[in-house]
Amino acid sequence: MNFATVRGLNGGSDLPTKAKKWAELLGVPYIERDGNSSLQFIMQSYNLDCLIVATKNGPQIFSEEGKLFYHPGMAVLRLQKLLRGERDNFVEACELQAGSRILDATLGFASDAAIASYVVGPEGCVQGLEASKPLWFLVKEGLHNYVGEETELNEALRRIETVCTEAKVYLKTLETTVLM
Ligand SMILES: C[S@@+](CC[C@H](N)C(=O)[O-])C[C@H]1O[C@@H](n2cnc3c(N)ncnc32)[C@H](O)[C@@H]1O
Fold first, then answer.
1. Which atom of ligand 1 lies at the shortest distance from residue 73's CA?
2. pLDDT range class, residue 1, cuts 50, 70, 90
3. Atom 4 of ligand 1, residue of closest alpha carbon
4. Torsion over CA of 61, 62, 65 and 69, rounded to 10 degrees?
5. Angle at Cα 92 formed by Cα 115 and Cα 159, nearest 5°?
6. Candidate from 107, 112, 137 with most ligand 1 atoms within 8 A of CB, to mutate
7. What is the pTM assigned to this prediction?
8. What is the distance in A from the centroid of ligand 1 to the CA of 23?
9. 106 lines ligand 1 (CB under 6 A)
10. Which domains does the chain have, with CATH numbers?
């Protein structure tokens, strides 16, 4: 995927520094934003699939499909249900319990990973693989910085480890004994 980073507008003087740092980390170009030029214009001028925009609310993905910020989504409601002592089909199907080790090979917005992380707790381990570099970065930053009302969720998000990789490639690096 062809992408770059750029500063958002109206967010503070540190946004260019953030966008530059992210570009370095991701190994993609940082685009100096000329005045108030639109994101659409920048994307077309540089022939990009999307942009990672440094905003005061963290990274945003801008593409033809629209704008994306990190949000835990359904994980919030699912966690509230668990806190009330109700059941979660995913937790039951995977027979998750404190101390379990989970690999989510299609991390996406990490809803399932968040629930898994809450259930397995600090003694367990949740790792998530995401092939899309912009999405991996957005979610990695979100998991690190998101602050919601439920402390349990905030803590569970911080414990998730993420890897930007195609699942098949990563799975081949694991020792057979780990998979058994
Ligand atoms: C439907 S979402 C997963 C939803 C997620 N499990 C959740 O709970 O929110 C699918 C995600 O997996 C990623 N993906 C699909 N195939 C993949 C693969 N072979 N390796 C790594 N990531 C993959 C996609 O980029 C997408 O972000």
1. 9
2. confident
3. 108
4. 40
5. 25
6. 107
7. 0.94
8. 23
9. yes
10. 3-68 (3.40.120), 74-179 (3.40.50.150)
